Amino acid sequence: MAKVTKNIVDKDLRDKVFDELIFEELSKRELEFTKINDRQYGCIMTDLNGNERYVRIGAIVAEIREDMTAEELMQSEVDKYNESIVKKAELAAKRKAKAEEDERKRALKRAEQEGE
User: Fold this and answer.
1) Are residues 57 and 89 in the same domain?
2) If you average pLDDT over every residue of the chain, what do you get?
3) CA angle, 71 then 72 then 75, to 5°
4) Which residue in 33, 58, 59, 67 has its CB near the most CB atoms, within 10 A?
């Protein structure tokens, strides 16, 4: 079986934990969470590669800010995250376009060399 990459495996585990915590009815939850400390709970899950993994869920309480409300702070973090997703997509598109252009140039150069 081919190994699934770390990014895909970790995202899958996070998605499953969040789905269970946020969307699943209490009576239907399958994961067993153990209190780790005052800020974290954890559970054991099997990843896409068949390995047992320890997944921690942490609660981070933001400081009170003088310059913005709690809602504004949360929205600013959501906006930053969304901006980073857009930037990553733009960079990926640029890299893909450059790779395609480079390949086109190499193909033209090969064709010229073969024609000589």
Assistant:
1) no
2) 92
3) 85
4) 33
Gap between the Cα atoms of 109 and 116, Å rounded? 11
Q: Are residues 11 and 33 in the same domain?
A: yes
Q: Using the 8-state DSSP alphabet, how is residue 38 labeled?
A: T
Q: Are residues 55 and 7 in the same domain?
A: yes
Query: How many structural domains are present in the chain?
Result: 2
Query: In which residue are the tokens 């913005």 written?
Result: 68
Distance between CA atoms of residues 81 and 85, nearest Å: 6
**pTM for the whole structure:** 0.66
Could you tell me the residue range of the domain that residue 19 belongs to?
A: 1-61
Q: How many CB atoms lie within 10 A of CB 84?
A: 10
For residue 28, the model assigns a pLDDT of 83
Cα gap 56→45, rounded to integer Å: 11
